[in-house]
């Protein structure tokens, strides 16, 4: 095995993935927290399905990787149409953004 090669294991449970249609992003001076939520129409309550904690450097790398992948996707499949997002009033005690 190459010394620079990283062996990444993906368990069956994690490989199934978790559906999310809302991401809530908060940050401090040392970390970014991304909570993935599944919101169902007509249901006034939603649960965080997954939380990812990133260093600021890894958050920036993730943004760049997403931009690159979206560009590649759109070059094959056409522009992704953005739909209007209904504002969901939330205050988790820090700066927030929704995606």
Task: Describe the protein in words.
The chain has one domain. The chain has 99 residues and is α+β, with helices and mostly antiparallel strands. The longest helix has 22 residues, at 56-77. A 4-stranded antiparallel β-sheet has the order 3-2-1-4. It contains 2 helices and 4 strands.
**Radius of gyration over alpha carbons?**
16 Å
What's the β-strand tally? 4
Largest sheet at a glance? Answer: 4 strands, antiparallel
How would the global form be characterised?
A: globular
Oligomer: single chain
Helix content: 25-40%
Strand content: 15-25%
How many H/I helical runs?
2
Order of helices and strands: HEEEHE
Unreliable parts: 89-93
| Class of secondary structure makeup | alpha+beta
Strand ordering within the main sheet: 3-2-1-4
Whole-number mean pLDDT: 88
First and last CA, distance: 39 Å
Number of domains: 1
Can you give keywords for this protein?
99 residues, alpha+beta
Which helices and strands occur, and which strands form pairs?
Blueprint: H1 12-15, E1 22-27, E2 32-38, E3 47-54, H2 56-77, E4 96-98
Antiparallel strand pairs: 1-2, 1-4, 2-3
Write a brief structural summary.
With 99 residues, the protein is of the alpha+beta class.
